Amino acid sequence: CWTAGSDPVGTARWRGYKSMNGMGETLRILMILRAPVGGLYRHVIDLSSQLIARGHQVGLVMDSTLSDPQTDRRLAGMPTAPQLGVHRIPIPRLLGPADLLATGRIRTVARQCGAQVLHGHGAKGGFFARLAHIGRPDQAAIYTPHGGVLHFEQSSGVGKLLRGIEKRLFGLTDAIIFESHFARASFERQIGLPDCLTPVVHNGLLPDEFKPLAAETIDHDFAYVGELRHLKGIHVLLDALTTITNKGRPARLIIGGGGPDEEEIRQQIARLGLENRVTMAGVQPALQIFARGQVAVMPSLAESLPYVALEAAAAGKPLIATDVGGVKEIFGPTASSLVAPGDAGALAKALQRCLDDPAEAAAEAEKRRAWIQEQFSVEKMTDGIERCYREALSRRGTNRAASR
User: Fold this and answer.
1) Given Cys at both, which of 315, 329, 344, 379 links 240, Cβ 3.0 to 4.6 Å?
2) Residues 110-151: tens digit of each pLDDT
3) Tally of CB atoms within 10 A around 211
4) Global pTM value
């Protein structure tokens, strides 16, 4: 547990404090997530940093058994340490008896911190945020799915169970914040929507992320960044790569990331004879990998609103992506260039076209970058989420007054 000073809660010191952005009194917010990795974790760190800069107090709760090399770097890189502490507790991936203990611990942390907002991220984070505030009318439970249970097949037993649990938690939910219109529509279609706030607030990027990457660092034709698992479509990308050339030579790919299917991916590379054309770079910051590729590729079979697509496009990198999740919202006026997921032939054609006409690819990339700069800023994201917190707490206050 990492706390800031001898008085991590500071309730008396902060009561009545005005938020630096003028939106109202400071809030005490507890972010709850399971895995401190990937885009979800990046979202939590960025959002927390922005809220702290606005004068709010923030704490983090996350799994103590899972991390990657960037976990501690992201925490250490926050301009101000979370005043309500960083609390690492065991949080299992699947539901089980251990969740009861975790819920109790999170409830204790929330009480000790004097948290007004419990914001759960991902399926497990949302589960804990809503259970931990039972019987606490002074707390608002907020949930951002980040895909969550929607990644499980609807027809599977686990998928049906998790969707049923989500529906039963509706009565404990003050707001569900969706990061894309696609995510909101999918959640409504598969589970339904509760009678609470359900805004769409797009993920946002920091101002310095809109700087073009230097061409001098390019040593591969394509760059992939993300988790190494089947859902990300890397096997489709490798199949497509076998036919692609750049000015008469076989095209090369660099893959950045780690995950459960890494060995399977390595086996496919060997089976296809791509050992000299594919570099497995391991876990590194996304932009370091994208800087080494002429074109960024996101061949996913399913997504929500992926940060890697935003990061590549904001940096002005040509991007070939599949038409999944909220990617169409990221591509905006260039959405017609999206590729059908799982189609290696269509992906190969799009990749080859990008190499054959780099001027057209660059023009499209610049158009996309301008769209993202307008629609996906971290300030706009924080405004929307902070507004949701306040409205949820206001509704709770109104309901309490009406029940007296």
Assistant:
1) 344
2) 999 999 999 999 999 999 999 999 999 999 999 999 877 887
3) 11
4) 0.82
